[in-house]
Design a protein that fits this description.
Layout (H helix, E strand, L loop, with lengths): L56 H4 L9 H4 L3 E5 H6 L7 E3 L1 H6 L9 E5 L8 E6 L1 E2 L1 H9 L3 E4 L3
Parallel strand pairs: 1-3, 2-4, 3-5, 4-6
């Protein structure tokens, strides 16, 4: 089925009914609005959120005090792939890599930010990582297989 083959289904709309035009309209004189007053006016209506006989939703919900900025509670890591370190010419074997070195090489923005090492690519250099916040299991396995080691920061 293609878009140009679609057809409108029968019975999807009702014919339009002209309200409030005396007896021929089918709803007599006042079109279910009664005589005069606010409810008879064309501009009058009830908001969609109005719940008539029920207690409104905003009154039924429990009131919580304070405001928790959940985004301040989340840990945002700056991610580094081991494959990008392998391709970097500035890094030679048996090199100790810490956050200050990563900042000078523009891998991360600040030395205070959290760093996580991920595995993407091949690694042949034996690298020593110090003061790293997190490392994936595959990255740790591949780094140790290449002869390097990772010293995680105490949480």
């Amino acid at each position: 089925m293609l878009l140009h083959e679609l057809k409108k289904s029968t019975g999807r709309t009702k014919p339009w009914k002209r309200l409030g035009r005396w007896n021929s309209s089918g709803s007599w004189n006042y079109s279910w609005r009664g005589l005069k007053g606010q409810g008879a006016r064309s501009w009058w209506g009830v908001p969609d959120r109005f719940e008539w006989w029920q207690t409104p939703l905003h009154m039924r919900l429990p009131k919580l005090r304070g405001f928790k900025r959940y985004f301040k509670l989340l840990k945002h890591y700056e991610l580094i792939n081991v494959g990008s370190l392998e391709q970097d010419a500035r890094i030679d074997g048996k090199k100790t890599i810490n956050k200050e070195l990563l900042v000078t090489w523009w891998y991360i923005k600040k030395a205070t930010s959290l760093v996580k090492i991920l595995w993407n690519g091949d690694l042949k250099k034996s690298l020593q990582f110090e003061w790293i916040d997190a490392v994936s299991a595959t990255a740790l396995e591949k780094i140790e297989k290449a002869g390097g080691e990772v010293k995680l920061k105490a949480q």
